[in-house]
Amino acid sequence: MDLFVTLIGTAASVPTSARGTAATLIARGGERWLVDCGEGTQRQLLRSGQGLVDLDRILITHMHGDHYLGLPGLFKTYGLRGRERPLELIGPRGLIRLMEAMQPIIGRLPFPVDLEEIDEPGPAVALRGDGFRFDAFPTRHSIPSVGYALVEDPRPGAFDLDAARALGVTPGPDFGLLQRGEEVVTPAGRTVRPDEVLGAARPGRTVVITGDTEPCDATREAARGAAVLVHEATFLDEDRARARETRHTTAREAAELARDAGVGLLVLTHLSSRCAPSDVRAEAGAVFPETLVPRDFDQIEIPFPERGEPLVHPVRGRARPAAADGASEAPATFPAE
Ligand SMILES: [Zn+2]
Ligand SMILES: [Zn+2]
């Protein structure tokens, strides 16, 4: 099953000419989830080539504006399209109060918005689906905040064709039954159990998105062995004191955490316009070489572990603004949110 993570917005606090504020799209098979929805996410989705996806679930990491201000516009557009299907909005403490406050702005919608506020502390299952779940884990930021981990269920072991044939199973529907965990009886009358023809269960994939946070144990635990960790890196290590003050993470700290958790690929987001992405990459890469500092709209394909490492598909067919390389992103001194 396909699994993609698309970086829709990677800027901290304020958009730049090259980067939108926080939004990450996860696509697994036919399902889509958006984690955070910063201002302008609608247009970012359109520009990313993903289109204005009809999302059924949006997960918010915390109630700072650069992570939720895109919601009213997106909801209005869904309303104008005549959407009737319910939309589930998940977030930490403060979500219900925020939505009440935004009610006069959003107005009447032709579809229900179901709110799920996650109680702190402690990891919790935020939602469950066919073959996967989303865990929410408590992160450490200046207001209540959570990160999310998409965790796939383990898969059945590989089917051993030779073993099945040797046991006398007839190729065809009986192979499928065994793969689905059912016993079959061979023409010779022998009962064959699935464990006689299936290898050990194979792990699924895990994708973790932190939102804004200091480095913390909950992220380290959620990210243990994850295929991809999308971690914020608002500062360089020379500004570590400022990172503590504002409860953010430096590029080096994110890399140390990724190394300790043994992740496959570290993706750094929530980049400050004061830091050149090349500096962020150099600092993190010195600690953890499997680090990507993406541009907006970069897409990461995550194969099953036995099929190889995550692949990065830079956005194609579109000229990038020169500023996307970072060196010419205008310096600014906004407080980090
Ligand atoms: Zn933020
Ligand atoms: Zn924040």
Question: What distinguishing features does this structure have?
Answer:
337 residues; binds zinc ion; 24% helix; 10 helices; Metallo-beta-lactamase, Chain A; alpha/beta
Task: Give a verbal description of the structure.
This protein folds into 2 domains: 3-155 and 202-323, Metallo-beta-lactamase, Chain A, CATH 3.60.15; 156-201, no CATH class. The protein has 337 residues and is α/β, with parallel strands linked by helices. Helix 1 (41-48) links the parallel strand 3 (31-35) and strand 4 (57-59). It has helices at 41-48, 65-68, 71-80, 95-106, 161-166, 173-179, 217-222, 240-246, 251-261, 277-287; strands at residues 3-9, 23-28, 31-35, 57-59, 87-92, 113-118, 124-129, 132-138, 146-152, 184-185, 191-192, 206-209, 228-232, 265-269, 291-292, 299-301, 311-313. It has an 8-stranded mixed beta sheet. Strands 7-8-9-12-13-14-15 form a 7-stranded mixed beta sheet. The protein has 10 helices and 17 strands. It is globular and about 70 Å long. Helix 9 (251-261) packs parallel to helix 10. Bound molecules: zinc ion (2 copies). One zinc ion is lined by residues 62, 64, 141, 212, 337.
